[in-house]
Amino acid sequence: GYxxxxxxxxxxxxxEAYQAYDKALEGGIADAEKAMINIALIAKVWQKAHDGDxxxxxxLHICYEKGNGTEKNRQKANEWLKxxxxxxxxxxxxxxxVALLSGKNIKKSVPDGINYCKKAAEQNHIEAIIAxxxxxxxxxxxxxxSLPRSRKLHP
Length: 155
What we know:
This protein is mainly alpha-helical. The chain is 66% helix and 0% strand.
């Protein structure tokens, strides 16, 4: 079940992993029940994310980023973060914007980072609003080295 869940040596398949854990549970393996619950939750989020649900896409991003219920995969984490941000999920817009501005775990792009932070500001994300005001009214461009101190922290 574990190998199927994490895609180790086989293609990742939550349905087959769940079935393998179910079989293990019948044999009395204690951790199988916990793993089955985890698989069921991830499978639900995975399906909703693929159906276009922005919050589920953000959660799936976190799963890949942290390795929760799946393998750690920075590329997939970034793909799901971008999908969520493009689907107007506030936290994803801000997190992606900050990541693009800093270049941490993603290819740096100041213009794209500013764009995503502005999108978050339009949805009233307070830190994004402050950064937007900083650039707009103080005429200080949002670029590395000129960001307000609070903007250097990741959400």
